Amino acid sequence: MKLLRNFLFFSPLFYALTCSAAGNTDVSGSKDHPLLSRYPDTHIIEYRFSEYDELEVRTAKSFNDHGFKHPSKKLEGKLTTIEYQSNTNAPFTQVLRNFGEGLKKAGFKELFSCDGQDTCGPLFVTHAMLETPIHSNFRDYPTSTDSTNGSRYGYWSGSLTRSTGDVAVTVLIGEDGKYREKVDIIVDIVESKPMENNLVVVNPQFLSDSIVRDGKAVLNGILFDTDKATIKTESSAALKAIADYMEQNKTSKVFIVGHTDTTGDFQHNTGLSQQRAQAVVDTLSSTYKIDKSRLRAAGVGPVSPAASNSTEEGKAKNRRVEMVLD
User: Fold this and answer.
1) What string of H, E and C letters represents the secondary structure of the chain?
2) 51: closest CA among 79, 71, 27, 73?
3) CA 96 to CA 183: how far, in whole Å?
4) What residues have CB less than 8 Å from 324, skipping those under 6 apart?
5) Rounded to whole angstroms, what are the CA distances from 122 to 62, 92, 146, 147, 246?
6) What pLDDT does 297 receive?
């Protein structure tokens, strides 16, 4: 991946920018991502890192169809978010094009790119900044990015397949119409990896104890492909534990309930949670021969959180499947 750092800023014109003033200091505790160099003559004003989190990656233009829609897909893995700000005047179009061209030269496949409302669609940057939690409190980003005051914004997303795990990068760039000498650049890098499992062992006794104590059991260890209802193969131990519980409690009937966090579209999340719950029911019936009349799937999306959605830890707890006695 050193290739990416070599390619990203390939023009002598861009390197010439480093000859300008020293600029401001990076925020404490921040650093560049090892896969991606910064645009010359910028400093870091916000930085976040999570070992395992979710990122909404835009895949198409926003549109209004009885409500604003923002096509995207969710990716999970090690997530780094960095916001840079230029120290001096940086040409907006040059910055945006340089990121896209550099990433493509490094092997990334473009998912979506846009420049302004005509190509990004209505409320694009509002959704990206205010409705996507990972970006919601970047304090200095110019949110008034519409044509009425000369503000501009652009976006680029792409992915790279690697043997050690896929990588996706999104870049959101803004220029405030009132302060043209500053450009803000938000870079998200998500590196897919298997989530650390078996932190809580699911077995028939755990399920029984949880139901007696709480009236429900969280089915740790049931994992799905990102933004899909496809159950991962490493979920077999948890599924077997549920089947064993049902065999030991032959008169019990249960709901399998899917939950999500608040990231993304409500209708999509509600539908996805229903599909995932149904996938668990179907697997228990087809693979483990549990009578389907004893199982009912329900998807409630984000409406019954286990924790606050204001933190990444809380959102992780809210993305779950539960078993509730019928």
Assistant:
1) CHHHHHHCCCCHHHHHHHHCCCCCCCCCCCCCCCCCCCCCCEEEEEEEEEEEEEEEEECCCCEECCCEECCEEEEEEEEEEEEEEECCCCCHHHHHHHHHHHHHHCCCEEEEEEECHHHHCCCHHHHHHHHCHHHCCCCCCCCCCCHHHCCEEEEEEEEECCCCCCEEEEEEEEECCCCCCCEEEEEEEEECCCCCCCCCCCCHHHHHHHHHHHCEEECCCCCECCCCCCECHHHHHHHHHHHHHHHHCCCCCEEEEEECCCCCCHHHHHHHHHHHHHHHHHHHHHCCCCCHHHEEEEECCCCCCCCCCCCHHHHHHHCEEEEEEC
2) 79
3) 10
4) 215, 216, 254, 255, 257
5) 6, 20, 10, 12, 50
6) 96
Calculate the alpha carbon distances from 324 to 95, 209, 212, 297 in Å. 52, 12, 11, 10
> Distance (Å, rounded) from C-alpha 241 to C-alpha 208?
11
Instruction: List strands edge to edge, sheet with 295-299.
Output: 216-218, 320-325, 254-259, 295-299
pLDDT band at 1 (very low <50, low <70, confident <90, very high): very low
Query: Given pLDDT bands bounded at 50, 70 and 90, which one contains residue 147?
Result: very low
Residue 139, number of CB atoms within 10 A of its CB: 7
How many angstroms from the chain centroid is the CA of residue 129?
A: 13
Calpha distance 80→263 (Å, rounded): 17
* Closest of 279, 303, 281 to residue 290, by C-alpha: 281
Tokens 């089947």 sit at which residue?
243
If pLDDT is split at 50, 70 and 90, which confidence band does 8 have? very low
CATH 3.30.1330.60 in the chain is located at 204-325
Give the fold, CATH level 3, of 204-325.
Answer: 60s Ribosomal Protein L30; Chain: A; (3.30.1330)
Q: Give whichever of 88-92, 126-130, 173-177 has the largest mean pLDDT.
A: 88-92
Tens digit of each residue's pLDDT (9 = 90 or more) over 302-311: 999 988 887 7
